[in-house]
Amino acid sequence: MSTRRVPxxxxxARRAALLLPAVLFLACxxxxxxxxxxxxxxxxxxDALSVPDPDSNYAPDRHDGFGxxxxxxxxxxxxxxxxxDSDADPRFDxxxxxxxxEGDARVSPxxxxxxxxxxxxxxxxxxxxELTDQALxxxxxxxxxxxxxxxxxxxxxxxxxxxYTSARRRLFIDIARExxxxxxxxxxxxxxxxxxxxxxxxxxTHDTVNTEHVRPRSTLDxxxxxxxxxHEQSDLNHxxxxxxxANSTRGSFPxxxxxxxxxxxxxxAFFGTDERGQQVFAPRPExxxxxxxxxxxxxxxxxxxxxxxxxAVLKQWDAEDPVDARERTRNDAVEAVQGxxxxxxxxxxxxxxxxxxxxxxxxxxxxxLAAP
Length: 372
Description:
This protein has about 375 residues and is an alpha+beta fold. The chain has helices at about 10-30, 40-50, 135-145, 165-175, 225-235, 245-250, 290-300, 310-320, 325-340, 345, 350-355; strands spanning about 155, 160, 180, 185-190, 195, 210-215, 240, 260-265, 270-275, 280.
């Protein structure tokens, strides 16, 4: 036979029972010399029971107003206040610490010594997450078209406005220039890693450093007098410094993995034939992923095709050589000049989400592109 345990009244309830007769006497029977009650019933009860005044600006105590607050560890499960399902308003303690691991709603002032939060990513990749194949390429193309800001055209050495020479100058002055640990400024060959020191504001001569089109010019618009070709060949996202000899060896050959090397003059870049007997060029390993993402960009930006075997190799390079800080820094620099970015750098994995990089009609035309 079980015994039913009768709950003990709380300390506040016991005090109320003891003090209630005195309170009633004070409120109803005691008068001043003028015959007026000393205090109304509400005031007397609040004073007697230490019940907070509802019009007060002070927050109520966490205990019943008498003595020291109970130790939370010894007070039992009902002493901690409203649980997560309670409708009661939480009590605010202005001296409490900030939010705890369990989601306490109290807020602490900011810590002036706390580290700055990391900057947000430059772009959101959320819009691409559910897309694949041509649907993804179409959205990428629209975004790249809409954010594209053509390079400001300056006169060339002959005084003629020239988009390509203007882009080349921005490449060497703003985009590709970097500083070595000893403070020396210069540019580095994409394919070999050879470094060329340059004075501040100096643009190298063509026989010293070439401007490589990672997407060969021969594979761009067939009309080399068109505005389409002018903009494609001047797109800073695929212009890189290279050694003249390495640039010449690569030529317009596709990228690939030589299994039989016929030219190692530019090692760690190699030229040779792949397993199919086709002549291919391979940049140094640490820049293979960079090259792949540039090629993906040019296809999505200008509606260009990628040959199936080269595409497969580039996707492999994209996976094996992930995006690094150098690529991100360059992407920021290109955006500052040209407006758009390479999304294959910002959102790793986009290249693998496209099954086939095939040609398509771009939004750009000779009628809507800026001249010259």
